[in-house]
Amino acid sequence: MEGNMSTIWKRKIIKYFVFTSALTIPFIYLSHLIVGKYISKKRKELEAELEVDVLKINRCLSLGVESKSKCDCVDVFCSNMQCNIGKLCYILRLVENSNKTLDVCIYFLSANVFGEAILKAHRKGVRVRVIADISNTRNRNSWIFKFLEEGIPVRQKVSDNLMHHKFLIVDNEIVVNGSMNFTLCGAFSNWEMVLVSSQPSLVKQFSNGFQKLWDSFDNHLH
Ligand SMILES: *[C@@H]1O[C@H](CO)[C@@H](O)[C@H](O)[C@H]1NC(C)=O
Ligand SMILES: *[C@@H]1O[C@H](CO)[C@@H](O)[C@H](O)[C@H]1NC(C)=O
Ligand SMILES: *[C@@H]1O[C@H](CO)[C@@H](O)[C@H](O)[C@H]1NC(C)=O
Ligand SMILES: [Zn+2]
Questions:
Q1: How many of the other CB atoms lie within 10 Å of CB of 192?
Q2: ∠ CA 129-76-207 to the nearest 5 degrees?
Q3: Percent of the residues in the chain that have a pLDDT greater than 70, as a whole number
Q4: Strand locations in the chain (E)
Q5: Least distant ligand from the CA of 88
Q6: Would you say residue 221 has pLDDT above 60?
Q7: Which atom of ligand 1 is nearest to the CA of 56?
Q8: Is residue 97 within 6 Å of ligand 1 at its C-beta?
Q9: Residue 96 C-alpha to ligand 1 middle, in angstroms?
Q10: What pLDDT digit, counting tens, does each position of 1-43 carry?
Q11: Is residue 166 among the annotated active site residues?
Q12: What is the mean pLDDT of the chain?
């Protein structure tokens, strides 16, 4: 008798669980789906509002002595992002592949690979503007003479303060900012950090900063 009762109860309990889980599992699944969709939609709205890009580019490159051992390349066509030269190439490619505008604001410009990348952009019709420190006019290794010769406008300011920025903006869409001079020596013999980002709010601040300098600086070579 007792044995029968307990098996009946067992069955009842099992039935109950099977029945309720048959309802709750799809319910949980559906609500997950709906809530998940809602959250991802809200997140996208929020990102758009805050101008936090669903990023095309968001990279922090650490160059220099720290990663020297990883680099066994001698040319400037490396695509290994673990390698110093690969990282430099990544930046150079961004510069060369600019399509509309290229705003360069860099303390000192003497690296050939970098000067050439800027010229390449200019020659294919990109509107290039260069801001550099006034010391560039006193150093024959600076690329600014070549830039001026080629018709790229360069602006500087006579001042006791250094124009110490090292950033550039590609197509008003990508900002590259860091400690690097874009002298090869600067790139590989120091510890350097370079941030590459297409986050609109960040890019906008750099473009505004560039424009401010551009308006207040002058061409001291004409
Ligand atoms: C410029 O346009 C080309 C071709 O559409 C594209 O591959 C490249 O990524 C663009 N450059 C940048 C910096 O977005
Ligand atoms: C640009 O990079 C340099 C070097 O890392 C850093 O000191 C500076 O704060 C950065 N500027 C901005 C506005 O992020
Ligand atoms: C940038 O270049 C100048 C001139 O070559 C040099 O004096 C300075 O140390 C360099 N700075 C960095 C961070 O490489
Ligand atoms: Zn390499």
A1: 22
A2: 25
A3: 87
A4: 58-64, 101-106, 127-131, 154-155, 166-170, 174-178, 191-197
A5: 4
A6: yes
A7: 14
A8: yes
A9: 10
A10: 556 778 888 888 888 888 888 888 888 999 999 999 999 898 8
A11: yes
A12: 87
